[in-house]
Amino acid sequence: MDFASNPERFAPLTVGGGSDGPLILTVPGLNNSGPTHWQSVWERERDDVARVELGSWARPHRNTWVNQLNLAIRRAGRPVVLVAHSLGCHAVAWWAAMERPAYGDPVIGALLVAPPEVDVAPVDERLKSFGPAPKGPLPFPAIVAASHDDPYIQLHRARRLAQFWGARFADAGAAGHINADSALGAWPFGQFLLRTLLGLASRSGEDGLPASTGGPVRTQIELSV
C-alpha cells in the first residue's frame, strides 16, 4: 500500500484517551529508545502512553526485564496495550510465557516491532540470553511488524515468530531496524498498526478470541506499508 496514494489510512492517532481507554506501555529494546525514536515521539504526543523502565538497558537480563514489565503492567490499574521494539518484543513474549496471564488481565493486545533474531547467530551477543524465543501463542491479539532490510533479523524469520506467537504480520517495507536511525518521525504506518490492534482488542469476542476455546486465533493476515 502506497502512503502517498492513501494518506487517510495512515492518519495521525488522536491525541488523548486519558484514563477512559487503555494505557499504552512502550517497551524499548537494547540501549533504550532515544528522543527521535518513534516510541519517544508517541510518548510526547499522547497522554495515554508511558514507557516501561526495564533498567540495565545496555546489559539486559531476561528475568529482570520480565519482572519490571510485570510490575508496570500490574501498576497500570486499567487495560494495557504493549508497544514493544526490538528486544522488548522478546521481553513481552517471555512475560506471557512466564506469567501465563488470562486474556485481558490486563493486557488486551501487543504491537511487536522489529523483534531481533535470538535463536540463530544473533547479531549482538547480548541478545542470546533471551533465546530460544518462546514458541507459544500469545493470549491476546498481537501484530508483528518487520522490515525487509533489518540487520537484526531476516524477514522470513520475523514471519516465523509471528506464526509462533499467533500474531498478524505487518510488512513495514525497507525501514532498517525501525528505530531512530530509520528516521521515521511519528511513524504513520506504526500508528495505523496501533489503531488496527486497538480495533482487534475491542472486538476480541468475535475476532481475537473464539468463545469456544478461550485461546487466540492463529492467523497470518498480512498488513503492508
What does the secondary structure layout of this molecule look like, with pairings?
Elements lengths: L22 E5 L10 H8 L3 E3 L10 H14 L4 E6 L1 H13 L7 E7 L28 E5 L8 H10 L3 E4 L16 H15 L19 E3 L1
Helix pairs in contact: 2-3
What this model shows, in words?
- The structure is a single chain.
- The chain is an alpha/beta fold.
- The chain has one domain: Alpha/Beta hydrolase fold, catalytic domain (Rossmann fold).
- Helix content is 27%, strand content 15%.
- The protein is globular and about 40 Å long.
- It starts with 22 loop residues before the first strand and ends with a strand.
The amount of beta strand, in percent, is: 5-15%
> Biggest sheet, open or closed, and with what strands and sense?
7 strands, parallel
- SSE order, one letter for each helix or strand: EHEHEHEEHEHE
Distance between the termini: 5 Å
Counting helices, strands and paired strands, the structural category is alpha/beta
Q: At the fourth CATH level, what is the homologous superfamily?
A: Alpha/Beta hydrolase fold, catalytic domain
Known CATH architecture: 3-Layer(aba) Sandwich
Count the domains.
1
Alpha-carbon Rg, integer: 16 Å
- Any low-confidence stretches, pLDDT <50, length ≥5? 1-17, 205-219
H/I helix tally: 5
Task: Tell how many strands the DSSP assignment holds.
Answer: 7
Strand order of the largest sheet: 2-1-3-4-5-6-7
Fraction of residues in H or I helices: 25-40%
Rounded average pLDDT: 87
CATH class: Alpha Beta
Query: In CATH terms, what is the fold-level topology?
Result: Rossmann fold
Shape: globular
